[in-house]
Structures are given as structure tokens and as C-alpha cells.
Amino acid sequence: MDSENKQRSEEDKNLNERVDKEIKDREEALKDLQNRMDSQNDDRNKEMDELRTRMMKENAFLKSLAGKPLSVYFDAYRTKAYDGGGEENLTFNGVSCNVGGGLDPESGVFIAPIGGAYIFIFHVATHDNKKALLSIRHNGEEVASIFDQNHKDNHKNSMAGTTILLSLKKGDEVVVYAYTGTWLADFPMNHYTHWVGLLLKPSEEAIQEFRDSAEEGNFEEVPAN
Questions:
Q1: Of 41, 129, 147, 193, which has fewest CB within 10 angstroms of its CB?
Q2: Where are the domains of the chain?
């Protein structure tokens, strides 16, 4: 009898140990599962926060772009003949448009408000019995020229012009420079002289600047004149 009780007690002990071990293993498995679920939830929450932040930045970027002009462009003209003798920047009497405010017609200087690829177009009418020698200068360096000579036996005005593409950085200067002896024909209603500039595509640096400004909440407006 004592032997049977001892055996039964041993079996009960072994059973209790197995049950305790099974309970402990299941508790550890449940705890591990809970930890994995918590980690996955944390990852999902982090992803949602990152997605929310990206969307807010994109919205701010689009909002900043909406407050800017679609491009930068100008068209300047003269209303009277040029006989200033040359060796100076050509100036202009008016502008039909100046979006971005880059051109100062009184000084003739265009300062790029946005970096990117620009096209510039310039054309003039030569004065009777005079020559026209002008250049387009980028930051003081000559990048294109116009030359036309109205000979004595011609006694007619002629048109001359040029077109050039330039890659500009923000703050770069572009001017039309008149050399010695340049004369140009212009009248109030004719506007023979035209100086045109147009931003074709902003540079990657300009786009990144827009994005950085939007993310910082600094919406710098480019004036639309």
C-alpha cells in the first residue's frame, strides 16, 4: 500500500511538473507572440507616422508651388532710337510683361529669381547709315553677339537678332551690351527692339529649394508683375 501511494505520488509530481512546464511554455509563447504583435504594431504606427509626415510635406510643397508663378518671363522694348555711343548696357523704355520681376528695364539687367534653363531672344533694327554691334552677356561674359552694318549705298533699315539658351543659377545676371558706334532705330509705335527671356525648366536645385522652403514653412513668393 505504501508502495502504491509512493508511486502515485511520484506520478502526480511528474504530472504536475509537466503541467507546470506546459503552462510556462505556453505563457512564454503567448508573451513572445504579444511582443511580436506589439513590435509589428509599433512598426505600423511608425510607418503611418512617416507616411503622414511625407503627405504633409508634399501638401506643403504643392501649396508653396501654388503661390508661385508658373514661370519666369519678360518682354522689354524700346520706344526711341538708341544713339548713346555704346560701351554700356542697353536699357529699355517699357515691358509688356515681367513675371518674376527679374528684369530692371532702367538698368537693362536681368537677375534670375530662379535657377534653371532659360531662352533669351533679342532683335533690333539698324539705324540708317549706321552699324549695330551688341552682345548678350552672362555674368559679364559674352555668350552671343549681333552685328549688322547698314552701308551708305543701302539707305534702308534692316532687322538683326539672335536666340540663345542659358543655364542660370539664382542671382545670375544677363544683359545686352552695346559696343561703340551702335545705333538702333526705334519709334514709339514700332518697338523694333525687343529683349525677351523665358524660364523653360527650373533646376533641380531650385525645385529642392522650393521643397525645403515648404517643409520649413517658409513660402517665399516670387513676384508676378
A1: 41
A2: 1-67, 69-203
- DSSP-assigned beta bridge partners for residue 98: 74
Sign of the Cα pseudo-torsion (171, 136, 134, 191, in order)? negative
Q: Does residue 154 carry a pLDDT above 60?
A: no
Look at residue 219 in the predicted model and tell me its pLDDT.
45
Question: Can you say whether residue 129 is alpha, beta or left, with left for phi > 0 and alpha for psi between -120 and 50 degrees?
Answer: left
Does residue 133 contact residue 87 with C-beta atoms inside 8 Å? no
How many Å apart are CA 188 and CA 134, to the nearest integer? Answer: 22
Q: How far apart are the first and last CA of the chain?
A: 111
Report the C-alpha gap between 218 and 25 in whole angstroms.
57
Half-sphere exposure of 15 toward its Cβ, with a 13 Å CA cutoff? 6
Position 152 confidence tier, pLDDT thresholds 50, 70, 90? low
If you average pLDDT over residues 97-111, what whole number do you get? 96
Q: Which helix (H) or strand (E) holds 64?
A: helix 2-66
